[in-house]
Amino acid sequence: xxxxxxxxxxxxxxxxxxxxxxxxxxxxxxxxxxxxxxxxxxxxxxxxxxxxxxxxxxxxxxxxxxxxxxxxxxxxxxxxxxxxxxxxxxxxxxxxxxxxxxxxxxxxxxxxxxxxxxxxxxxxxxxxxxxxxxxxxxxxxxxxxxxxxxxxxxxxxxxxxxxxxxxxxxxxxxxxxxxxxxxxxxxxxxxx
Length: 192
Description:
With 192 residues, the protein is of the alpha/beta class. It has helices spanning 11-15, 29-42, 56-69, 97-100, 120-137, 149-160, 185-190, and strands at residues 2-6, 47-52, 73-75, 102-103, 106-107, 142-147, 177-180.
């Protein structure tokens, strides 16, 4: 079983700023409370490992969970949020579909990317590679993955066998927990 957890609320989230791969955001008081709540919910699971994006907001959230589960946090850059390039630090409500590739809650163009940023296709490949590496480990215990809205959406789509061009782009709540069933060996060989 794979438990996907989005990092808890950061000060940039509360301001509505695009974070992407910028690493200046810090957890708010509410974010720390969300992380503690997520740790409590995951405490009863038979967890083999806790993986996290190495961006600080994810690592800080992962720290609360790993402490409660008595596990070390293993960081992995493949779990980074999508890079928004020059748009990082701008107001998230100002992101045009021409830069994001997302229109009306659906992927409209997986190849488009902001200036100096990453496409949805690039994010998808990175996240699929991470999932494939987990499947190859063939551990029957649960794995907790701390990541970001974009990377969580991609991991869920890959696990469901949904191509990036066919996926929807719904919201992912801060400290929200989503479950994905492993093993995905048939997906690893057929989804690419």
